Amino acid sequence: MGKSSKDKRDAYYRLAKEQGWRARSAFKLLQLDEEFDLFKDVTRVVDLCAAPGSWSQVLSRVLIQGQTVGRAAWEDKRYKELLRLRSLGSTAEHEDLPEPGPPPEAKPRKDVKIVAIDLQPMSPLEGITCLKADITHPSTIPLLLKALDPSYDPTTTSTEASHPVDLVLSDGAPDVTGLHDLDIYVQSQLLWAALNLALCVLKPGGTFVAKIFRGKDVDLLYAQLKVVFEGVTVSKPRSSRASSVEAFIVCTNFRPPGGFRASLDHPLGAGRRLGEVGGEAPVARTPPSRRTREDGIMELELGSEPEGDGREIRWVAPFLACGDLGAFDADASHKLPEGHVSLDPVQPPTAPPYKMALEERKKLGGAYGKTKIGTGI
Ligand SMILES: C[S@@+](CC[C@H](N)C(=O)[O-])C[C@H]1O[C@@H](n2cnc3c(N)ncnc32)[C@H](O)[C@@H]1O
C-alpha cells in the first residue's frame, strides 16, 4: 500500500503529518479537550504510555508554548462564526444568538511540569521529562514522584507526592493480539496501573483521562471510579474509529473519601475494590435525570439499580461522542486535496517491538512488505 493511499484512507494520519504531530492520537486528545476543557487551570501533568509523544506535544503546545489548539481553537472558531452570523444582519433568525465574548487569549503558563512515561524510548521534547519505565511495575512510582519533585526521598515508604498533579493522562495500549478477550484483559491491567499511579499523585479536584476497551464488565469499573471521582464519562472522539472498541474515560473532580490513602503495596484491581479503601460504592439507586448544558446539549444520566445484595452495583456512565461535527470521519476515505504530496511521518517509532522482525525480513530480501518466495515469511 502506498503512502498516498493511507493518506486517503486515514485523514487523521495525513493531518498529523501536515500539522507536525508525531501520531494521529493527538487529535483524540484535542477533541477530548474541545468537549471537556481538560487543560483549564492545569500546569502539572503526567502523560502515561506516552510514546511516540503526540499527547505530550499537545501538552507542550497548550501549556508551554501557549498555542491556540484544542478547546481554545474550537472557542476561537465558534466566536468567529458567531461574529460572522451577526454580521449577516439582525434577522429574527439571528436575534436570539448570545452576545459573543472573545475567548480567553491562549498564552504560555508559568511553572509547568510535565512528566511522560513509556516502555519505549521517546524522542525528547523541550520542557518535558521523559521516563522509560513500565507503568505496571511498582518501581515506577518512586521514579515518577522523584521526577515531579526532585526533593522526594525514594527511601521513604510514603507514596504521597508533595507536589500533586492536576491531570493524569493514559493512552496505554498493549500490542493487540486480535484475541479480543485477551486484549481487553491486558488493556484493563494497564488501566488499573494508570489509575493506581493517578491516585498517588492527583490533587483533589484533579482529572484522570484514560483509554479503555469497552468490554462486557466495564460498567463495574465505572461504578468503582465513581467512588473517587465526581464525574465519570465515557467519550469517543471522532478521530477514534467507530469500528474500534476503544473509548476514553474522563474522570473529573477527584474527591478521595475521608481516610483514603493510595498504596501500591495493596494496589486496586488485585482483589481490592475502591469501595473497600475508604469510600462508599455509589448509592444503590440513582434515578435517571436530564440536564441541558449551556451549549444546548442535553445530557442524560441513566441512573443505577442495585443487584443481588447491593454489593455488585453496576452503573452506566454517560456516553458522549466528541469532536466538532465538521471534523473528519475516521472511518471514511477522503479525497486528497489538489496537488497533494504525501509526507513522511514526523517521528517514526524509535524502538518498536516489531523492529527485529523487520530487520530479519529485510535480511531475507523481503523488505517493504514484499516476501521472498520460498522463505515462508
Ligand atoms: C497508543 S500508544 C500511545 C500514543 C501516545 N499517546 C501518543 O500520543 O503518541 C500506546 C503506548 O503504550 C505503551 N505501553 C504499553 N504498555 C505499557 C506499560 N506497561 N508501561 C508503559 N507504557 C506502556 C506502548 O509502549 C505505546 O507506546
What does this structure look like?
The chain has 377 residues and is an alpha/beta fold. Helix content is 29%, strand content 17%. The protein is built from 10 helices and 10 strands. Strands 3-2-1-4-5-7-6-10 form an 8-stranded mixed sheet, with helices on both faces. Strands 8-9 form a two-stranded antiparallel ribbon. Helix 1 packs across helix 2 and helix 3 crosses helix 5. The model is unreliable at 308-312 (pLDDT under 50). It binds S-adenosylmethionine. Residues 22-23, 25-26, 49-55, 117-120, 134-136, 171-174, 190 line the site of S-adenosylmethionine (SAM).
Counting H and I runs of at least 4 residues, what is the number of helices? 10
List the ions, cofactors and other small molecules found in this model. Answer: S-adenosylmethionine
Superfamily (CATH H level) name of the largest domain? Vaccinia Virus protein VP39
Percent range for β-strand residues: 15-25%
| Oligomer status | single chain
Distance between the termini: 18 Å
Biggest pleated sheet: 8 strands, mixed
Number of domains: 2
Pfam families: FtsJ
Binding site for S-adenosyl-L-methionine: 53, 55, 118, 134, 171
GO molecular function, one term: tRNA (guanosine(34)-2'-O)-methyltransferase activity
Function: Methylates the 2'-O-ribose of nucleotides at positions 32 and 34 of the tRNA anticodon loop of substrate tRNAs.
Q: Can you lay out the helices and strands and say which pair or pack?
A:
Layout lengths: L2 H7 L1 H9 L6 H11 L7 E5 L5 H11 L6 H17 L4 H4 L17 E6 L9 E5 L7 H9 L16 E6 L9 H22 E12 L4 H11 E9 L8 E9 L34 E4 L5 E4 L17 E4 L32 H9 L14
Parallel strand pairs: 1-2, 1-4, 2-3, 4-5, 6-10
Antiparallel strand pairs: 5-7, 6-7, 8-9
